[in-house]
Write a structure and sequence with these properties.
Helix content: 40-55%
Order of helices and strands: HHHHHH
Structural class: mainly alpha
Radius of gyration: 28 Å
Distance between the termini: 67 Å
């Protein structure tokens, strides 16, 4: 529906109608009209379609190698008897190996995404 409205507005403009009359008649803003006119003028065949607003780059996102280091460190620590396996312990191990990470929450997010966080349930006994 919205895409058709964009096409209709530009067709009317190309037929000679005033831009102000078009956007007022359609109940849209001046900036809306000129945004779509500018996109039309780029000669892109999909000018009337919405574009993603997601950032192209995510500079703070961990790369695959760093994620794998977190995962493999967690698995190695789990295999050791009485070893701590939390985010702080993983960060400590990685720091000893020469790798540092920004925060415990980043490590926790990776572990959660990989399904490596396990809740310990304490069963209390009634008297």
């Amino acid at each position: 529906m919205e895409q058709e409205l964009r096409k209709k507005a530009i067709k009317r403009f190309l037929k000679g109608e005033s831009s102000k009359f078009i956007y007022k008649d359609l109940g849209r803003s001046k900036s809306w009209f000129f945004k779509w006119l500018k996109r039309y003028q780029t000669d892109d065949s999909d000018w009337y379609k919405d574009r993603s607003r997601a950032p192209i780059n995510r500079p703070k996102e961990l790369n695959a190698i760093d994620k794998q280091r977190i995962i493999s460190t967690r698995i190695r620590l789990e295999s050791q008897k009485f070893a701590q396996v939390g985010a702080s312990a993983i960060k400590w191990e990685l720091t000893k190996s020469g790798f540092g990470f920004p925060s415990d929450s980043t490590i926790k997010r990776v572990l959660k995404h990989e399904g490596l966080i396990k809740k310990n349930f304490v069963h209390s006994q009634r008297c």
